[in-house]
Amino acid sequence: MIELMLLIDIFLLVFRIVNGKNERQMHPGEKWLFVAAYIGLFIYNYRKYNKTYNKHRQYWKDESQGKRIYKGLFVILSLVIPWVLAFWIGLY
Fold first, then answer.
1. CA–CA distance from 39 to each of 7, 19, 47, 53, 88 (Å)?
2. CA–CA separation, 72 vs 90, rounded Å?
3. Residue extents of the structural domains in the chain
4. From CA 1, how far away is CA 87, in angstroms rounded?
5. How confident is the model over 17-63, as pLDDT tens digits?
6. Is 26 helix (H, G, I), strand (E, B) or coil?
């Protein structure tokens, strides 16, 4: 989902640069493009990460508490930033 939000952010940014603040409705083809991108990214991530949790768990179990918090903050930021960017681009 976050990968798709980054694609939407890029789309919105390019759209704002090209068209300025002119508002328009999304073309149905654009909506289907986003649906296809979502499904494609879902399938890609499922194939890439399916049944690899235990392998990753082995790497994570030896991390210190400070490193876990540090990496956890990066995960939270990577989840929040695309939404903030979309909202910010939408406002301006």
1. 13, 28, 12, 22, 26
2. 28
3. 1-14+66-92
4. 16
5. 777 777 767 778 888 888 898 899 889 988 988 888 888 888 888 88
6. coil
